[in-house]
Design a protein that fits this description.
This protein has about 425 residues and is an all-alpha fold. About 50% of the residues lie in helices and about 5% in strands. The protein is built from 17 helices and 4 strands. The two termini are about 10 Å apart.
């Protein structure tokens, strides 16, 4: 790591807070009583990276690997994660179901070979094969994708992220990357936008609480949008994992982001989504950046573009992305929009994204900003208390971000966010 060395009191404060949060997550909760197996039942939280046991297992696994915890809590949370039949159907992906539990196991206990691991690997392979076949059929029909086809949370980008960690030399990862290359190519769809829209223009409505506009949209965020595939393609290229057209696909996405990049008093920013009306107008309806979150804000998008610049050897693009991130984290107006401490939407996600970006940065402002963001994360870590226990939206992710900063040790848990 090349980040600025941090003052010992701050390191201690970060690890103390990480330890305190971890201590509240030593034992899994009891399984819910009753027979509610509906989709909203809390019994499914166990196999969730975002809300439940799979995510907490990663926290304890990383702490055990750095000498700050024991193995038994890891095993206990993994048992809880697999207590119910694992979902490997429509709703399954990196953050939920069989892939989430497989990812948790291989991240938390990377050298373990439990009897169930072969079956879990097979389940992930089968799901990925099924999703690739469905995507091939959709592309052949010149139809628009749903977000769940390609996004990080449930789609092929998330499955590819797991494979990048689990089987980086395997053919299946390369097939996922080849699909993402095709995703960036234009689709001659018979719809309201046709060839004006990029290949990842989704048939899903924007669903932004204000509009149910027909005609779909282009999602820009890391969690559900095109910057997730951009990050995966770039991270794979950094490891010399390449497929035909990969560099062109990265450049194609970056060029589209350039088109929608907006300039403001606190630096450049990108809109979260592009609607049909905005596509036709050639400009976004919003006039300034939204919350500076990992999932949909400037930090996640800037990290993806930084990774693209590094992968392509484009120092100008890398430095422009770093400037966007540095000016974002220095803007009190944007920081004032953060209302929770989580990885997905809040302080932990912003701080973790900055920490990993700073490790790669040419811009010295990024490593210099890490102590400031760490102090803010320590300050806000328990306010308000998240409703669930998981990694992405719960306290496990907050503790893990603090632990990473305090120890300076990268166990690559952040593969689940595609920031490294």
């Amino acid at each position: 790591m090349t980040v600025t060395p941090l003052a010992t009191p701050l390191l201690r404060a970060a690890e103390t807070m990480a330890s305190c949060i971890s201590d509240t997550l030593m034992e899994p909760p009891a399984l819910p009583d009753g027979v509610d197996y509906g989709p909203r039942s809390t019994r499914w939280y166990g196999q969730s990276l975002s809300k439940g046991a799979a995510g907490v297992a990663i926290l304890h696994g990383v702490r055990a690997q750095t000498g700050h915890g024991e193995r038994e809590p890891v095993r206990a949370w993994l048992r809880h994660a697999s207590a119910e039949t694992l979902n490997n159907g429509t709703g399954a992906g990196l953050w939920f179901g069989a892939p989430a539990v497989t990812h948790a196991l291989t991240t938390a206990m990377p050298h373990a070979r439990p009897a169930a691991l072969n079956a879990l690997d097979t389940a992930v392979t089968d799901l990925t094969e099924h999703r690739l076949t469905a995507a091939d059929a959709r592309l052949a029909a010149s139809a628009r994708p749903r977000l769940a086809e390609f996004d990080l949370v449930r789609g092929l980008t998330g499955l590819g992220a797991h494979l990048l960690r689990r089987s980086p030399d395997g053919d299946l990862l390369r097939r996922v990357l080849a699909y993402l290359v095709r995703l960036t190519e234009p689709v001659d769809a018979d719809d309201a936008v046709g060839l004006l829209a990029p290949g990842w223009w989704s048939a899903d409505p924007p669903s932004n609480g204000e509009s149910r506009e027909r005609g779909g949209h282009a999602n820009v965020g890391m969690a559900h949008g095109i910057t997730g595939p951009l990050a995966l393609l770039s991270l794979a290229m950094r490891r010399d994992i390449r497929v035909p057209g990969q560099s062109e696909a990265i450049d194609r996405v970056c060029s589209w982001l350039d088109t929608w990049q907006q300039a403001g008093p606190a630096g450049v920013w990108w809109p979260e989504k592009i609607t049909v009306a905005e596509l036709r107008a050639g400009r976004p309806a919003i006039t300034g950046p939204a919350r500076p979150s990992w999932c949909y804000g400037t930090p996640g998008m800037a990290r993806a573009v930084q990774l693209a610049g590094i992968a392509l050897g484009d120092t100008g693009r890398q430095q422009a992305a770093e400037d966007a991130l540095a000016r974002c984290v220095a803007d009190p107006v944007q920081l004032g929009r953060i209302i929770d401490p989580s990885l997905c939407h809040g302080w932990a996600g912003l701080a973790a994204t900055l920490w990993y970006a700073a490790a790669d940065a040419r811009d010295t402002r990024l490593p210099a900003s890490v102590p400031y963001l760490m102090r803010l994360l320590v300050q806000h870590a328990t306010d308000p208390t998240p409703a669930s226990s998981g990694l992405i939206s719960g306290p496990a992710g907050i503790a893990l971000a603090l632990h990473t900063f305090a120890t300076g040790t990268d166990i690559h848990w952040s593969t689940s966010l595609l920031i490294t």
